[in-house]
Amino acid sequence: MKEFEQCNILGCEVYHNGYQGGDAGHGGYVTIHFKDICGTSMMLNGKDVKEFKFTFQGDSERDTLIDALEYVLNELKKDQRK
């Protein structure tokens, strides 16, 4: 687990098995796991959580996840602290 530190410590892991040539039935997946190591305030579906994982299955889902994460990063970087 890679740790990211500021006033809090956030852990993150990414698991995947690359492109598998099809949909979820062909075994392709991406799992992202976030974990509060120390002092990280996180909510999921309106509830406080200490960690969560999510998984996307299939090649198309992998591609749209990448597109969505790039969108999120670009939006957040517009107003990033220096």
**What average pLDDT do the residues reach?**
95
Structural class: alpha+beta
**Overall body shape:** globular
Spans where pLDDT lies below 50 across 5 or more residues: none
Strand proportion: 35-45%
Secondary-structure element pattern, one letter each: EEEEEEH
Total beta strands: 6
The DSSP helix count reads: 1
Main sheet properties: 4 strands, antiparallel
Spatial strand order of the main sheet: 1-2-3-6
- The portion of residues assigned to helices is 10-25%
> How many discrete structural domains?
1
Q: What is the CA-based Rg, rounded?
A: 15 Å
Protein traits:
82 residues; alpha+beta; 4-stranded antiparallel β-sheet; 43% strand
Can you describe what's shown?
With 82 residues, this protein is an alpha+beta fold. It has one helix and six strands, in the order ββββββα. It has one domain. The chain has a four-stranded antiparallel beta sheet. It has a two-stranded antiparallel sheet with strand order 4-5. The longest helix is centred in the last third of the chain and has 19 residues. The chain is globular and about 40 Å long.
Summarize the topology.
Elements: E1 2-5, E2 9-16, E3 29-38, E4 42-44, E5 47-49, E6 51-57, H1 59-77
Task: Write a compact overview of the structure shown.
This protein is α+β, with helices and mostly antiparallel strands and 82 residues long.
